[in-house]
Each structure stands twice: as structure tokens, then as C-alpha cells.
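Listing 4. Sequential folding, example run.
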Amino acid sequence: MFRMIEKSRSPQKGFTLVELIIVLAIIVILAAVIISIYFFKNRLAEARNASRFEEVQSLASALTTYQVDHNGFLPPGIDNKLRMLGTETLGCDVPCGISGEATESSCLNLSSFIAYQYLAQVPDDPLFGSEEKTYYAVRTLPGGRMAVMACGSELNVDITSEK
């Protein structure tokens, strides 16, 4: 009689409810980790762009103040060509802004003109910049105006200040 009971109980095929819940929990945790990493990277890029925006505004204000103090003249070297700020003499030709317009090959050193009196120091890009290549560029526009732009902006954002 006992043998009949044992033979009638065949092992069931499939997963238990506990096994399914554990697998589902693992999938949810992995998805949450992947999504948070993706959004974390975007948040870092947005924070760097916010820093770039503030630095572009500071540079534009400093140059405008210099222009007012010097009877409408900008520091020497600023003309209608897009020039990256920095101390490097070669290798400053990088794509700048969404349009990808290249800056001139030599950087424009404005440290002696605007640093200390108008700014504590010439800012540099939070990701790519250095004193040699700041990844901020400047040029004049028609009508006596000027444009300052960030060359290293992320997330396809154009960061420019025209004054």
C-alpha cells in the first residue's frame, strides 16, 4: 500500500512561488541599478553644464566691465575669429558649440587683462579644461557685441553668452 502512494506522487515540474519571487526581485534590483547609473551620469553632465553656464556668464561680465573701463575697447586679441582662452600657443583648434565651429589654433591669453582685477582667475572647463586650454572661447560680433561660449558642453547643449 505504501508503494502505491509513493508511485502516485511524482515530482512536480515547474517553479515554486518563492523561486519566482526571488528571480523577479533580482530583475527589479538590476533594472534599478542600471537606471540609476544612467540618470547619475546625466545628472553629472547637467551639473557640469550649469558650472559652464555660470563661468561663461562670469567671463562675459568681466569682459564687459573691462570694455566699459577702457572706453569701449576689448582686450587685445579679441576679434571676429573664435579663439579659445588659455596660455597654450598651439593645439587650441577644437570644435566649439553645437555647430562645431573650430577655434583658432593658438589660444588667447587674457590672464594679464582680466584676471585679478575683473576675475580671480580665468575659469577652465570642469571636465576638459586647464590653464593652458580653458575650453572657453570668445569673439566679437557685429555691432560692437561679443560672444563667449563653452566648447566642452555636454548633452548637446549650446552654452553661449552674447553681450
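-- end of first protein; second protein begins --
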Amino acid sequence: MWSVEQFKARLKEMLSARSSAHEIALGFTIGTFISILPTPGFNLLLGALVVAVYPHVNKLAVFGAMAVYNPIVIIPFYWASYKVGGLIFGLNPVVHYDVVVISEAYDFTRRYLVGSLIVAAITSTVTYPLIREIVHLRRSRASRSSQADSQI
């Protein structure tokens, strides 16, 4: 597990990367989307696949987002996913099987997967401009700091 100091170092490295603010924000957004999907363990493989297919995406940002959305942080997103799916499909099952376990599993899975897609899409949409603005602010603050240092 990462310590707080290691996490801060990786975050600074990501924000000061030579990538554009768009590439960093896009990488973090993709990592966020993958992390919120109900694919525990498989999400690292999906992240590696995205990085391999899209070379301009900031790799550190993709995997940094996956580190942020760890198993403890992701719990509220999973709960929200089920609730959003429940709002869409309601309480009445669409398909009813004679075996109660199969019927309940189908109903839960349907609500949870659709809710996860919606929550992941909304969270990712909000994440992109937020991370892009953070990168811009961090870089402008760093450039002002270096200008002030050079004048001294």
C-alpha cells in the first residue's frame, strides 16, 4: 500500500508531467470510468489495454485514478450505482424466473450494471474539467513561482 508521501510524490509527478493538461485530465477521466465499473481486479487489465491502444493518454493519470478509487473509496459509488439502477428499473422485476435466486440475481445485476454505467459516466464527465483546471492552476502557480525566483 502507498504511504501518503508516496501518493503526494506521484501526484506531483503526474501534474508536472510533460503531457498536456488535456492528456492528463483525459487519462484521469478514463481511469475514473474504469475504476467505477464493477470490474475489481480486471480494471488494471482494462487500464493497460487503454494505455496500449491510446498512447497519448497520460499513463500515470490512468493508474493514478485507479489508486484514488481504491476498494474503500469505491463503496459509496457502488451503493449509488445500485440506487440509480433501482430508480430506473423500479422495484418490480421485469423478468420473473421460477427459481427465486435466479430471479433476484438477475434483478440485482441489471440494476447494478446499468447504475454503474450511469454513475461512472457522470463522475467521469465531472472529473475531466476538474482535473484539467487543477493542472492549469498548478502549472500557472509553478510558473509564477519560478518567475519570482528568477527575479530575486
